[in-house]
Amino acid sequence: MNDFYKKILDNNKKWVETSLASDPNYFQDLAKGQTPPLLWIGCSDSRVPANEIVGAKPGEVFVHRNIANMVVHSDMNMLSVLDYAVNVLKVKHVLVCGHYGCGGVKAAMGNDSIGIIDNWIRHIKDVYRLHSIYLDSIEDETERFNTFVEISVKEQVFNLAKTSIVQAAWKNGQELTLHGWAYGLNSGFVTDLEVNIRSNKDLDEVYQLKF
Description:
Helix content is 51%, strand content 14%. It is α/β, with parallel strands linked by helices and 211 residues long. The protein has a 5-stranded mixed sheet with strand order 2-1-3-4-5. InterPro entries: Carbonic_anhydrase, Carbonic_anhydrase_CS, Carbonic_anhydrase_sf. It holds the Pfam family Pro_CA. This is carbonic anhydrase.
């Protein structure tokens, strides 16, 4: 058994011991069910841990992650998570969290072939094409990259709002607010991109304001 694999098994045992030391019923209570108020749609990047960023405990955040935190209408994995979160868990908030320095977003700004991921990045390239005039006007490459990260997150929130799942929830009067954040790898802080949407009226107003 290699050292890394043994280490993560040992870490699990230490985590269990520490958790039980603080609360003997910790795992028994967790096993009874979950009622998280938040669905987090984030990037697969290992440096962006959903629970830790918001200081949440296990059971407080329902999580879906993919490369570059995309909301793609043909992605049955994402839609299944969203449907369960909204219609079964009754979350009140859905948060799309991107991050500055995102490799998927960076790859979408170039033309290099990476592999099968090229097909996924195609969706991010479509976002760039939609905002190419504005993005191409930004001369500083880092600023353009950061701006593209933010724009992509906003577009994913708008995509989220247009899903039949969210639309049905709003139609039925369910309390559900969508949010967009960008996380700073080099600071730990998040930037609220101010796309907080709780209805179709909000969707129209925020879209006009942000673009």
